[in-house]
Specification:
The chain is α/β, with parallel strands linked by helices and 313 residues long. The chain folds into 2 domains: 160 residues, Quinone Oxidoreductase, Chain A, domain 1, CATH 3.90.180; 138 residues, Rossmann fold (3-Layer(aba) Sandwich). The chain is 34% helix and 24% strand. The protein is built from 10 helices and 13 strands. The strands form 2 sheets. Strands 1, 2, 3, 4, 5, 12 and 13 form a 7-stranded mixed β-sheet that branches. Helix 5 links the parallel strand 7 and strand 8.
Length: 313
């Protein structure tokens, strides 16, 4: 049982979602240098079990959700986690614990990517990887902002059906990235280069996003930086590249930076509770166990997950 440190609340975990960063940390990739615990997991939904004397605004029994970053007593694949209060917000009343657990990492990442790419109502937007967890939120949030000129990718009939049924994307807004010339088709469907692109895939898709941009465009990526050749393409378009690291604020020792997570979570909660956002599509793999974790990681590493995978406790 974790202690409740200064400025923390302890949460009894009710549900946890899985994110690609989980298996990336497991494999020792970039964010692994910042972890405090061998226990994986970055977001959760649950109930407040204990509150430090100096914390206000929360009481035992409150239903909350959190993006714990690297500041909690452990990752979220646990029964109890102590978390700085700045990383916690009231759970949307309209969502189940399983749905709420699927929100923090993916929705915060999508929100930051849209902000970095300077997406607004009149922006033409390309989303690479729209059927994934972050992509789903990017599309839903963009639509909530009033974006109408949007094109995304799919590589199978299953992904197309998901984007249509769960994200409200029309067939005319989807391009098959497996087919040759999809960049040209995307530009044709948009009526020209895109004002903004979100790369949620990396690799060759990042290069495609550079090629898709219009003059003065903005590219936000949650993966890697462009190659030298791709930077040359961006340079010739006077375009901007923005990296998106949702955990970045937590690396600061200034707790005021941590508060940005609560602000974002509270904003998302309001959107859900006034039905401006639909509940995130989730697949519940079952009760927390090593076997469920193995299954989730295998599915994520296969690259075929649509929406979010969750487990409950």
């Amino acid at each position: 049982m974790p202690d409740v440190g200064k400025g923390e609340v302890r949460i009894k975990v009710r549900a946890v979602s899985f994110n690609p960063v989980d298996f990336q940390i497991r494999k020792g990739r970039p964010e692994s240098t910042h972890v405090r615990s061998m226990i994986l997991g970055r977001d959760l939904s649950g109930t407040v079990d204990a509150v430090h004397d100096e914390v206000t605004g929360f009481k035992i029994g409150d239903e909350v959700f959190s993006y714990v970053c690297n500041r909690a007593s452990s990752g979220t694949y646990a029964e109890f986690v102590s978390v700085p209060a700045e990383l916690v917000a009231r759970k949307p009343a309209s969502l189940s614990h399983e749905e709420a657990a699927a929100v923090p990492v993916a929705a915060i990442t999508a929100s930051l990517a849209l902000k970095k790419a300077q997406v607004g109502e009149s922006t033409s937007l390309f989303v690479a990887g729209g059927a994934g967890g972050v992509g789903t939120f990017a599309i839903m949030l963009a639509r909530q902002m009033g974006v109408r000129k949007l094109v995304t990718t799919a590589g199978s009939a299953r992904s197309r059906a998901y984007l249509s049924e769960r994200c409200g994307v029309s067939a005319a807004q989807i391009v098959d990235y497996k087919q040759e010339g999809f960049v040209e088709r995307a530009i044709e469907q948009n009526g020209g280069g895109f004002d903004a692109a979100l790369d949620l895939v990396g690799g060759k898709m990042l290069s495609s996003c550079c090629a898709l941009l219009a003059l003065d465009g903005n590219l936000a990526s949650v993966t890697e930086a462009p190659s030298v050749d791709d930077f040359e393409i961006l340079f010739e378009k006077n375009a901007s590249f923005h990296s998106v690291g949702a955990h970045a604020y937590s690396l600061s020792d200034d707790r005021a930076n941590w508060m940005k997570y609560r602000v974002m979570l509270e904003h998302l909660s309001r959107l859900f509770d006034r039905a401006a956002l639909s509940p995130p599509p989730t697949q519940n793999l079952g009760k927390m166990s090593a076997e469920v974790v193995r299954q989730a990681h295998a599915l994520m590493e296969s690259g075929t997950v649509q929406g979010k995978l969750v487990m409950n406790c």
